[in-house]
Predict the 3D structure of the following.
Amino acid sequence: MITSRTFRAALPAAVLVCALAAALPAQASPADPRDAPAPRADTRTASAWLPYWDQENGYQDALRHAGRLHTVSPFWYKAAAADRIEGHPGAGDTRIIDGLHKAGIHVVPTVMDMDTMKPGELAGILTTPARRAAHTAALVRLARSHGYDGIDLDYETITTTATPDYRKVRSAYADFVTGLCAKLHAVRKQCVVTVSPQTPATGRIWDYAAIGRAADRMRIMAYDLHWSGGPPGPLSSTAWYDEILRRATALVPPGKIEMALPGYGWDWPADGSRPARHVTWKQAEALRRKVGAPYALDPESATPHFTYRDGTEPRTVWYQDARGTAAHLAAVRKYGVRDTSLWALGFEDPGLWNVLAQQ
């Protein structure tokens, strides 16, 4: 998931923030993407995030699989204050934007909130009308710049269920999304909202029904069932997908949902005594072959895993590949959800794209 926990583990420490101007200029966009011929529903059913720390590799990956992608979301921006959006290195790269557009792919950059504001600051913006209006205006300015087709809102540190103001903040975020999407639609831009899985114990900060009414698409980050800071285990499972989508499709039309899939894994100490190392599918498979571990697909979760020794330390790796994704997609399609997202371009098993084409 593009959570703060995954983001911090996957992000090289040396890659920090490069600030943009506080007021992003509104630039005229090229022809509105909504006026272009609609991509064929049977081929372009995927979107994907483009990591800025591996930008060229991810960009070339997108071009190779343009026939499957309707949208790419470069992971380019962060909310720094009510009236300020800042850019990561490479944000707004016109070569990438133009290249993706030429390939028929919408460019909907992600704005995230991890490690950017003090605890409670985002909640304060959402619950203060003047600050919320300023933040909405800053996001609309961003969406209108660089020929973008909209924005993807990935706010994950709003608050937790333990705070006294939880219900107030939850309602304020729903109102914020509703207002933002309306303003984006008024300037013919897409409004995409990324959320975490909602179960009886998780993801309650997001009002799925309100987000589903307002947004063009709601992306559910269906990974990190087991994460870097917890005990070893699968990143996702068919049973978990069933639980997530049973709840989500009762609140949001399936046509508006994108189920976001993992293209990576975690390499833990076998006893889970320390955080896991992030591995892409390619790294996990190279390691499996190097240590001579047999390929094994866990029958319960439908995810590959193996164990090995690093010196004297036993370790275990759980990750996802095309074979596991095929099993998971069967659970997704059962609920009428056709669209998927990938975290992230350049991480995944290349065979994943054939799996997406067959589903």
